[in-house]
Amino acid sequence: VADRSEQAPLVLKVCMLPQVKMRVIPVGPTLNLDEYLGIEIHPHEDRCFIALIATAFGFIVRAQVIGEWGTEFNLSKTQQGEIFGVGLWPFAISIVIFSLIIDKIGYKIAMIFGFACHVISFIMTYTATGYDSLYWATFIVALGNGTVEAYINPVAATMFSKDKTKWLNILHAG
Asked: If you ran DSSP here, which 8-state letter would residue 38 be given?
């Protein structure tokens, strides 16, 4: 959760497991987690965590607004369910596909693809006119979400090779 006030600098509150307590981390021009977590995080690795946050927000926002979309775009319950469902199965497919090819294409390409999917989906959702545009926007964000998941896990496992399980749990629970 970011907090901005005139007196306080930008801070990031992070839930740390297994203690499950909030820590307040001041954030400067770059996300400086190494001082607070006791690990060295390079700038490109920060982007992995930011990408996972974007992925989580994509799931949450769509789940919260599906009813409003139903009203605004006159969608049936079946259409709402299809839009919600298309946010899941492409996610799983892209995890599998990118997990198989990520070492050949590289993590940078996977990150760019995931970012592009998020941007394209945002534009399509913002300019949506009905069922078809919402369906395809959700399909594209699901591909991006799966791509993020496919590269974030091996990056986290590499960064925290001594405590993989602990940090993968923190990554997915925080």
From this structure: T
Residue 145 and residue 59: Cα distance in Å, rounded?
Answer: 9
Name the token pair of 116. Answer: 């592009």
Residue 11 three-state SS: strand
Secondary structure (3-state) at 14: strand
State how far the alpha carbon of 58 is from the alpha carbons of 5, 91, 160, in Å: 27, 12, 26
Q: Rounded to an integer, what distance in angstroms lies between the CA atom of residue 135 and that of residue 41?
A: 37
> 13: which residues sit within 8 A by CB, 6+ positions away?
1, 3, 22, 23, 24, 25
Identify the CA nearest to 43 among candidates 55, 57, 28. Answer: 28
Q: What is the pLDDT along the chain (174 residues), one digit of tens a residue?
A: 444 444 443 333 333 334 334 444 444 444 444 554 454 545 555 666 677 777 888 788 888 899 999 999 999 999 999 999 999 999 999 999 998 999 899 888 988 999 899 999 999 999 999 999 999 999 999 999 999 888 888 887 887 788 888 878 877 765
Within 31-130, residue ranges assigned H as helices are: 34-37, 43-72, 77-85, 89-105, 107-126
